[in-house]
Amino acid sequence: MSTAAVHPSVEKINAILAENGLPGRVWILEDAAPTAQAAADQIGCEVGAIANSLVFTTGDGEPLMVMTSGAHRVNIRDLGSRIGVTIKRASAEFVREHTSQPIGGVAPFGHPRPIRTIIDVDLAAYDQLWVGGGIPHAVFPLTYADLVAMTDGEELPVA
Questions:
Q1: Which of 22, 26, 106, 151 is the most exposed place for a label (fewest CB within 10 A)?
Q2: Is the distance from CB of 147 to CB of 121 less than 8 angstroms?
Q3: Which CDD domains match (predicted)?
């Protein structure tokens, strides 16, 4: 992995981390990581410590980000019932419109406007999480507490 800032999205995330006194910096993975397991293998962490940033759309057309452990999938029906809205997977265009970032590299913050965020409570089991850094191949370390604080996230079971 390298820490070289190669893209404006990476620079933006690094600036947000520094402004908030967070120690992590964005790392660029050497190889593509199309799955949480592939990312975990390159980083050398458990797959459950990969915090996937998944963007959904609600019934009223609003974005909803779900930060979920790489160890499992989001149960859309159950989560929708818990938060009182219908949700479905967002299109790539919707994701880019609301995050300014492509699918496969969405960071949990640094978007044009705040996005309602649900944090998978299973992520609390890990001392250090790895989250998307704004572009595919980019990740950075963050604690569960910092993830919740930086996103103003709602902590819920999502699997």
A1: 22
A2: no
A3: ProX_deacylase (cd04333)
Which residue bears the tokens 């998307």? 132
What span, in angstroms and rounded, lies between the C-alpha atoms of 59 and 135? 27
CA distance 139 to 121: 20
Phi then psi for residue 49, to 5 deg, are -85, -5
Q: Which residues contact 83 (CB under 8 A, 6 or more apart)?
A: 64, 118, 154, 156
* 6 and 20 Cβ atoms separated by less than 8 Å: no
DSSP 144: H
If the chain, 159 residues long, is cut into consecutive pieces of 10 residues, what is the mean pLDDT of each piece?
69 95 92 91 98 97 98 97 97 98 95 98 98 94 98 98
Q: Look at residue 7 and give its three-state secondary structure.
A: coil
Q: Which structure tokens are listed for 27?
A: 């790392």
